[in-house]
Amino acid sequence: MRSMRAKGKRESDSKSPPPGPRRSIPQIESEREEQIRLGLEGRRPKTPLRSLKGLPCPVCETGTLVVVDSLTVDWVQNGERIVVGNLTGFRCSSCGREFYDAQSSRIISRYIDKARPRGGYSATISSLGGGKLGVYFPRDLLRNIDFAKSEVVRLYPVSRKKIVIESAETTGP
User: Fold this and answer.
1) pTM of the predicted model as reported, rounded to 2 decimal places
2) CA atoms within 13 A on the CB side of 139
3) pLDDT at position 63
4) Looking at the domain 45-115, which fold is it?
């Protein structure tokens, strides 16, 4: 005898739970949940810089640096917005500039390194004529750097087979 079922519905193929006593999921009451939340919010991240007071701001030189436990950094990498919060460091009381401590800097570096492609990029050196050579940067590389068309760059030879390319800082009139 065939079983009748509604059109479009499948019979469940899932396995039944093993025999034996069922374990229930513990329930946390709202009062206890509030206690846990307040306890976690009250914890301050440990930073050895907490004892430093009255440091002058290196940018504006008028404000003082205040220890902050709730810094956030965000940037766009490969078309994706990355937000890292709960960082520790300093904020200037005058200009608002933020500085991250060593631990927070390592956390930010790990996020950047995770998204960085391994093995580098490849490009072919082309002849432009007149004794000049050119390199066309791959599209993936251009998504990860802030170079623009007609931008002036500085080339630093490291060895006979390696160079470093940096954007040249231009000063306005």
Assistant:
1) 0.45
2) 1
3) 94
4) Ubiquitin-like (UB roll) (3.10.20)
